[in-house]
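INPUT
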Amino acid sequence: MNAQAALSPYSSSAGKTERRETHVLSVLVDNEPGVLARVVGLFSGRGYNIESLTVAEVAHLQGLSRITVVTSGAPETIEQISHQLERIVPIHTVTDLSLADAFVQRELAMIKVRGKGESRTEALRLAEAFRARVIDATTESFIFELTGAPKKIDDFVELMRPIGLVEVSRTGIAAITRGPLEM
Amino acid sequence: MSKIMTGAEMVVQALTDQGVTHLFGYPGGAVLPIYDALFHQTKVKHVLVRHEQGAAHAAEGYARSTGKVGAVLVTSGPGATNAITGLTDALMDSIPLVCITGQVPTHLIGSDAFQECDTVGLTRHCTKHNYLVRSIEDLPRILHEAFYIARSGRPGPVVIDVPKDVQFASGTYAPPKNIQHKTYQPQVKGDLAKIKQAVAMMAKAKKPILYTGGGVINAGPAASALLRELVQQTNFPITSTLMGLGAYPGSGPNWLGMLGMHGSYEANNAMHDCDLMICVGARFDDRITGRLDAFSPGSKKIHIDIDPSSINKTVAVDLAIIGDCGHVLEDIVRLWRTEAHQPDKKAMAAWWAQINKWRARNSFGYKKSDTTIKPQLAVERLYALTKDRDTYITTEVGQHQMWAAQHYKFEEPNRWMTSGGLGTMGYGLPAAIGTQLAHPDSLVIDIAGEASILMNIQELSTAKQFLAPVKIFILNNEYMGMVRQWQELLHGGRYSSSYSEALPDFVKLAEAYGMKGIRCSDPAQLDAAIQEMIDHPGAVIFDCLVDKAENCLPMIPSGKAHNDMILPDTGEDIGSVIDDKGKMLV
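OUTPUT
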């Protein structure tokens, strides 16, 4: 959103709280062509943020996929995002996990690090502390696989940077509620 | 009964089974099989428009005036892209449409084939839902599902993109039966506990107002009847959005006139000062609210809407009831009666006394003239001479539209077809044709501007071909009047490109199409000329030459609050009213 729009008395931000929150939305959809475009198009068309987005089929026989979106905004905006998502016809349910009692979230990252000598040992030592696995190695590089909450991955990446970080590939988060019940 | 047929035959059979009487369309390569199937039957009448935008607007007029789903058939590529303005218009105003688009055969999709475009991609944002039919097995289900989605819940347009090979393929067709969608299940009944709470709030209110919208019209004539009953029982004042006109009669005692940017002084002030606002099927649009942080600051707000995303979208409300306006109004009226509520008589008397003071301001008033026709007078006289007839009004977009909304009093729902949300110039003529074909014996008038009418003027051919005796009543001020007014407001009266240069002679234009042309510039001749238009059995273009400089007032200038209106008799210089922040708004 640009600054001018934010000032507008017609803007839907008028009268809303300044507080910005990050929420994890879990969206169960029919696995049909175009459904991801509908979801992503809604976010871009209405000016909402996507911080991360993960999608995969979760029930083959029923043809269901789960889209996990991390978004941020005022609480009112996030409520509006949920309702707008619910209008999309092939969407079954939208669950705002951040409003649920408790949920767990995990992300997988692959981190390529380059280095020789002392820095290799250092990288391996840190990887062990973070429980990262080595999934590829050459005489001058490693690829680490790391699973965890996004913060843990951020921390690990920052530690690798001075050692010889080459690049990172991350999946975005998958999330699910704690306890015995469905989301 | 299930039956083997081609995809093209299925399309026509499904239209028939869904009760479609008129299909507005334009043929082309990718829909030829469907046109061939139409050729072999008589149940669905195809109305050949002259531009696909006209097809969508005509279907909107048909849908809005009948409460049924409007049907559109266009070809691939340019056929589909031309229809997009009409689809967007229908989405913004919640008009049920099913638009069938032809598509290149499935094996050519994605190859930039001749007249190929990504129709489902392009229409994803301007439809309630859309489909690309990849296999003949899916076609019957999709056809019936599309009609269900278009008309149920919050209505809207649905596109079905049918590749040409699917139109030729054979499969089993089954007629529609109780369609239950696995994910799409709109909630129509309101939560009774919340409705009880609403009734209790209404019983306690001292300065209540009903603010109703197009949702009441969409909920059907029964919803309008319930609304009238509620007003009668509570004696609450009532105002409505542009889209909601006619749900409560314009001549009714509790009617305050339309609200919003060009709404009445009494409606806007009552909205601002009320202690309880009951919003029924409206969406707190920016034309309605004006400045949001000064919108009705002291009121409790109840919002009844079938679409949960309308709740708290721009205005936070105290009580939200999700449901169909008709169902919720029925519960409210029943509870009000059975719980034997009475409005607070003393408070209501004081409230009405205040409202009547605002009313006395006569905010729709204007300076009379003996020499030029004032546009407001033209609408007033049109109303006076047509009100006792079976009349439907459509409009284009601009000043004439607002004058029509202010000065034409609608007594019934579904009589007023206008482009509200999208504000589409060129809507009125095709919408009038669609309305006229649905109501062949009624008087259908497109109140137009000389600029808007030219945007879909090609539809005169459609009117001629299908013997639609529509009356096109042009308030001709030789300007894109609303643009000119805003240039006066915001840009020092520099009328950049808003003069209607090189206009056709509308009388001769009518004659060129074998229609009647009437021109009038003399207020003394106006009644006789309007009567001549009404009495003519065929289509008429009425070129009403009106005051070129008239502004549409009252007006809430952009960035201002409800109680900060420009009134017709306050000052001449409207160019200094809007501050820099307001100038950035639309």
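end of record. The domain at 18-99 of chain A is CATH 3.30.70.260 (Alpha-Beta Plaits).
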